Amino acid sequence: MMSKKRRSILAGKLIAVLTVTLFLPVMLNAGDLNPPPGAPAPTMKTLDQIPPTWSQKINQGRFVETFAGTAVLDKETGLVWERYPITSTMTWNEANIRCIILNKGGRKGWHLPTVQQLASLIEPLNNNPALPNDHPFSMVFDRYWTSTAIYSPDIKWTVSLYDGNILNYSTIGWSFHVLCVRGGQTNDYAD
Fold it and tell me: How big is the chain by its Cα radius of gyration, in Å?
């Protein structure tokens, strides 16, 4: 009969042999740390194709036309903005519906921007408009609706693209401009 100490040593040796047997072939075929030769496969993306993060600032070439020129991609945020919004003002409900049914370049999936998304367009050092110098928007108006509520569902944040001010207004009795966005988060209400 084997002693407990001897069985423990034997079990330890057996585990060590199994570990080496299972993992040695994997370790020997691990390869080096150099990237594979050639272009990335179709399922892979280059770093230029990965959407940028919100923390980076792109000073030049921030906006790229897309959807046959009817929209622009903001390379700083990864959001797509309609390039030619309608010029009339509308209530919050009308603005929300307009974005939901919008079709630009054959693409649906538009929504009212959150206050953070719309404010991401603001260039704090600029005024009239408070947008980056290379902004692609043909017409810029003062105040725009967002989907972000404050205090109650009937009070929404608005953003001024003239001076960058962010103020809240009731959705009842006020009309402002709308700039629809595609991508990013949404405040999906049935207001």
Answer: 27
Give a yes or no: residue 154 inside a domain. yes
Residue 101 has pLDDT above 60, yes or no: yes
User: Contact at 8 Å (CB) between 64 and 78?
Assistant: no
Alpha carbon distance 68, 7 (integer Å): 75
Q: How many domains does the chain have?
A: 1
* Contact call for residues 127 and 94 (beta carbons, < 8 A): no
Residue 102: give the domain boundaries: 62-182
At 191 the pLDDT is 42
Quickly state the pLDDT bin for 107 (edges 50, 70, 90): very high
Q: What is the 3-state secondary structure (H, E, C) of 132-191?
A: CCCCCCCCCCCEEEEEEEECEEEEEEEEECCCCCEEEEECCCCCEECCCEECCCCCCCCC
Residues pairing with 90 in the sheet: 176
CA distance 130 to 37: 46
Element (H, E) at 8: helix 4-28
* Residue 162: CB atoms within 10 Å: 16
Query: Predicted confidence band at 16 (pLDDT cuts at 50, 70, 90)?
Result: confident
